[in-house]
Amino acid sequence: MSDCIEVIKGDITQLIDVDVIVNAANPSLMGGGGVDGAIHRAAGETILEACKAIRRQEGMCDPGQAVITEAGNMTAQAIIHAVGPVWQGGNQQEAELLAQTYRNCLDLAAANRYRTIAFPAISTGVYGFPRQQAARIAWDTVYRYLGQRPLPEKAIFVCFDEETQQIYQTLADTL
Q1: So what's the pLDDT on residue 8?
Q2: CB crowding 142-175: b at 16 or more within 10 Å, else e
Q3: Of the listed 11, 17, 19, 36, which one is catalytic?
Q4: Is 3 a catalytic residue?
Q5: Which mean pLDDT values do the consecutive 10-residue runs of the chain (175 residues) have?
Q6: Radius of gyration of the chain (CA)
Q7: Which of 34, 153, 165, 174 is most exposed, with minimal Cβ within 10 Å?
Q8: Which CA distances in Å does 29 have to 49, 54, 151?
Q9: pLDDT at 169
Q10: What is the per-residue pLDDT for 174?
């Protein structure tokens, strides 16, 4: 089962062998800084237009929720735009919302029959979620999901820096 999850250090926008990439989006879906801005830049203008169409139809994307668009200029088949919670000290259901965010991404990938999915460390940048705690929630949620369903078959945690990679790798090594 542990071979269904991979941990790598790198730029999520540069992955070439993955069906769907998860974007750590903000509720507006209009792009921003960090991973969100990088994915919007790499994917091109069609992603912004797709996100605008979703906004017109459904409004803002609440924390814990996710939506899917085409991948534009990226080699993936789709992008899942996931809104994680802002850390507010841990007493505002942040852990539950983060787990829900990962589950909703996995549900969208499965519903669209994608076999592989790549995640950034959702909510750990400007949203301030403690990395160690966020990694444990992400790992546990994804590991349980993959063990109970046929799709997706594989998840990749793409870590932007060595510290985050080490946190995820330590979790992987405990299996």
Answers
A1: 97
A2: bbebbeeeebbebbbbbbbeeebbebbbebeeee
A3: 36
A4: no
A5: 86 96 96 93 95 95 98 97 98 97 98 98 96 98 97 97 97 88
A6: 15
A7: 174
A8: 10, 9, 26
A9: 96
A10: 87
Q: What is the pLDDT of residue 1?
A: 52
- Delineate the domains of the chain, giving CATH numbers in brackets: 2-173 (3.40.220.10)
d(CA 27, CA 59): 9
- Number of Cβ atoms within 10 Å of the Cβ of 61: 20
Question: Please, are residues 34 and 126 in contact by the beta-carbon 8 Å criterion?
Answer: yes
Strand 78-82 and strand 116-119: pairing?
unpaired
- Token digits for 129? 């979620």
pLDDT attached to residue 2: 58
Bridge-based pairing state of the strands 116-119 and 5-9: unpaired
At residue 175, the pLDDT reads 75
Q: How far apart are CA 94 and CA 98, in angstroms?
A: 6
